[in-house]
Each structure stands twice: as C-alpha cells, then as structure tokens.
Specification:
single chain; about 110 residues; alpha+beta; globular
Length: about 110
C-alpha cells in the first residue's frame, strides 16, 4: 500500500521516500527545517557478534528513542540499514528565521 511504501517495516518510522516527500512540502511552503543525519558506527560488528535479531532490536529501540525525542516538533526517519535522519522546526536563540542582533564594531 501507499503507507507501506513510505514506512520502514522494522522501525515503523518514515523511510527515505517519506523524507523526500516531507522535505519537498517544506521547501514548497518556504519553511525552515533542521536536518540531522545519523550513521551508527560499529553496527555491522554488533549485528555480526550478537546476531540479526539483536541488531534489529537495537535499531527498533533507537528508532523509538529518536521518535520520542522529536515528537511534537519534528520527525524521525530510517534511511536504510543503520542510517537515520531527524528533522525539526528550525529555530535560533533569536527566534525562527531571525538574525542575531546587530553588534557595533570597535574600531
């Protein structure tokens, strides 16, 4: 189904296709988003050492943690393998889309 084509079966997060659709909508609307990519170093060794069921469980736990961390202000995705992505509303300490206050140069 269309939903399955945009959802990772193991983690239930959106997949690469869903990320591209979501970012296309964000760009079309002119909104700003923060994009963070994660790649798990050493995951292959973990998977080989403890087995695929343990590796899958680790990926599912990480996905749940990422999803919980951004819930309400962002979205987590599994890009494939051990690669994940998180998007959040872009904010700065001066407010969304604003610039830092002007500073005077001391000459």
């Amino acid at each position: 189904t269309r939903c399955e084509a945009r959802t990772d079966a193991l983690t239930k997060l959106g997949n690469r296709r869903k990320l591209i659709e979501d970012l296309s909508a964000v760009f079309a609307e002119g909104r700003k988003r923060l994009l963070v990519l994660f790649d798990l170093n050493g995951f292959k060794q973990y998977d080989d050492c403890f087995g695929h069921p343990a590796g899958d469980a680790l990926l599912a736990r990480l996905a749940a943690s990422l999803d919980a961390a951004v819930r309400g202000g962002g979205t987590a995705y599994r890009m494939g393998g051990d690669e994940f992505c998180v998007t959040r509303e872009a904010r700065s300490r001066w407010g969304l889309g604003s610039s830092p206050p002007a500073t005077r140069s001391s000459r």
